[in-house]
Amino acid sequence: MTHDERGSGRRADAATLAAREAELSRWLEFNPEPPSIACDPAAREALARMGIEVSADEEALLARYLGMLFAANERFNLTRIDAESAWSRHVVDSLTLLAPLASLEKVETGIDIGSGGGLPGIPLAITRSDIAWTLVESTAKKARFLEAVARRLGLANVSVVQERAEQAARGPLRERFDVATSRAVGALDGLARISIPFLRIGGVMLAIKGARAPEEIAAAKQDLYELHSTVAGELRTETNTIVVIEKQRKTPAKFP
Question: Domain range holding 118?
Answer without folding.
Answer: 96-247
